[in-house]
Amino acid sequence: MSALARFRRSPEGVIGLALLTVLALAALLAPLLFPGDPLRIAGPPLLTPFTDPALPLGTDRLGRNVLAGLVHGARASLIVGLAAALVAVAIGSLVGTLAGFAGGLVDEALMRVVDAFQIVPGFLLALAFVSVLQPTLPVVVTAIALGAWTGPARLARAEVLSIRERDYVAAARIIGMHPLEIALREILPNALPPVLALSAVIVAGAILTEAALSFLGLGDPNIVTWGSMIAEGRAVLRSAPYLSIVPGIALVLTVIGTYLLGEGLAAMLSRRERQA
Amino acid sequence: MTDLLRIEALSVTYPRSKKPALASVSLSLAPGKKLAIIGESGSGKSTLAHAIAGLLPRGSSVSGAIAWPALGHPAIPGADFGMVFQDPGASLNPVLRIGEQIAEGAQRHLGLDWREAERRALELLRAVQIPQPEAALRAYPHQFSGGQRQRIAIAAAIAAQPRLLVADEATSALDTLVQAEIVSLLTHLVESQDMALLFVTHDIALAARLADRIAVMHDASLVEIGPTRAVIDTPQSAYTRHLLSTHIDLADPPRIARPAS
Fold first, then answer.
1. Which of B107, B201, B96, B92 is nearest to B148 (CA)?
2. Which of A70, A138, B134, B197 qualifies as a cystine partner to B34, CB 3.0-4.6 A?
3. Is the pLDDT of residue A58 over 90?
């Protein structure tokens, strides 16, 4: 059975993929669906949802279209989530592979750096990083990745420790490969499956961290994000709770979708492992 | 004739171990000859193979000398010797295609470009009798049986035309029929390409069928070395006699009692 067929047979994976596909489409088509600045005034303020067909999810305190904000906000959430997870997994698996493969002093040094990052709460680290620098998109991504790369690093190292004793690594050494080449070409790809399964959790965590940062007003002020929309609605939480609930639901669906997709991927990869 | 490999008083002690894994072992191997090293588990036979291949763990203390007189320079791994391992499930990288893994050595040591190396890999797959070699080039290790994987590992080990092939228990994990096929393949390859073979095994019958000379190891030392017939027919050491007497042959009376009908 091919990996794709195995993935299709896991219901979690399919549901997660469907949710994320809808979300990704919304994010990609945002400029077409709702052209122009989503932060501009589109109607009367505090319009309740489902009353005006032109503004199906109503408007916020300043009369901005909530649906437009939601769709545009999907871009920020997805971009930040994916980019932060990508950076975290790339740095983490690279550091973990080098530490596990080199062993000795290099391993000790790298893992103590990992410890140093791990003992600081990830959110606090991101908060400090963003408040010191300007809250632009790359800074937010870096800030989130800073707190998330240690998990992949530990996981990759543990995998590499077992893989480096296998015969094919000895075989690669025998044909005269450079150690760095062995680490990156022979070992890293084999250490990746569990790290990739973890990466879904990292994406979900990154999306939530981004929302929390924007909620605290530390996101990029020039783009709409779900976190900033929730923060915006907080002031009128009693009179117009939908302003916080709607982006909240979007956030929940995104995180659930990411987790489910991760489950599906993990099932697919673990079955492949057993078969091999 | 100049020896291909000469080992003099080689001793190896693994890190965090007091007892040597190899105690002052000396032997030599002429080009194109087949030497079998036999012994029980823990006798040091695999340590010897690893020492020759330079695969001892870091921190091992090594004394003595490993020389390659026929080469005139220290052996280059891959180019001057290749190695086949015990577990065919672990000696191929599961995420790389077969063709890539075989072509790697050829490209690295024979100065071939990638396309030539791939052609050489195809040749090698034919030489080790893998069915449908063109398709096998693009397949992954899990698509093959244990015996086929061992053939592929052999192809990868000899890709750069080494002068010596080290087989470390290369047939121990296979069933007897596949074992016989691999042994005849090894014999054929070694004889047709003028390679020397160092065959590590615990199976004295296999060693007797395959090798020109047999070295018997026991408790980290070499107890006996000589031409195969001499070692089998007139063993000099008590340990070799003991090994021979414990060997079970198909000609032996059955040890599993059959129920009387």
1. B92
2. B197
3. no
The total number of structural domains in chain B stands at 1
Strand, coil or helix: A164: coil
User: CB of A50 within 8 Å of any CB in chain B?
Assistant: no
Asked if B108 lies within 8 A of A175 by C-beta distance, the reply is yes
Asked, for residue B16, whether it belongs to a domain, the answer is: no
Residue B248: inside a domain: no
Q: Would you state the CATH architecture of domain A3-42+52-275?
A: Orthogonal Bundle (1.10)
Sign of the dihedral through C-alpha A264, A169, B190, B216: negative
Chunked into runs of 10 residues, chain B (261 residues) has average pLDDT values of: 88 88 91 91 89 87 90 86 87 89 88 89 91 91 90 91 90 84 89 91 87 91 91 88 76 59 53
Q: Which residues from B are below 8 Å from A167, CB to CB?
A: 85-87, 90-91
Yes or no, beta carbons of A190 and B86 under 8 Å apart: no
- A173 neighbourhood in chain B, CB within 8 Å: 54-55, 77
Q: How far apart are CA A50 and CA A67, in angstroms?
A: 11
- Going by C-alpha positions, the residue among A189, A199, A106, A195 that lies closest to residue A158 is A195
pLDDT > 70 in chain A, percent: 96
Q: Which of A104, A167, A175 has its CB closest to that of B104?
A: A175
Is the minimum CB–CB distance between A179 and chain B shorter than 8 Å?
no
- Give B248 to chain A, closest Cα distance, Å: 30
Residue A59, classed as helix, strand or coil, is strand
Question: Is B250 inside a domain boundary?
Answer: no
Q: Is residue B113 part of a domain?
A: yes
Residue of B nearest to A189 (CA): B95
Single pTM value for the model: 0.74
pLDDT digits (tens, 9 = 90+) for A128-167: 999 999 888 899 999 999 989 999 999 999 999 988 888 8
Q: Where are the domains of chain A?
A: 3-42+52-275
Q: What pLDDT band is residue A44 in, cutting at 50, 70 and 90?
A: confident
For residue A264, pLDDT beyond 50: yes
| pLDDT band with cut points at 50, 70 and 90 for residue A95 | very high
pLDDT at A2: 67
B97: containing domain? 81-161
Q: Long-range pairs for A60-68 at CB < 8 Å and ≥24 separation?
A: A60/A229, A60/A232, A60/A233, A60/A240, A60/A243, A61/A232, A61/A235, A61/A236, A61/A240, A61/A243, A64/A38, A64/A39, A64/A40, A65/A34, A65/A38, A66/A229, A66/A242, A66/A243, A66/A246, A67/A34, A68/A33, A68/A34, A68/A38, A68/A42
Q: What residue type is assigned to position B165 of the chain?
A: L
Query: What Rg value do the Cα atoms of chain A yield, rounded?
Result: 22
At A108, is the pLDDT very low, low, confident or very high (cuts 50, 70, 90)? very high
- Give the SS3 label for residue A41: strand
SS3 state of residue A23: helix
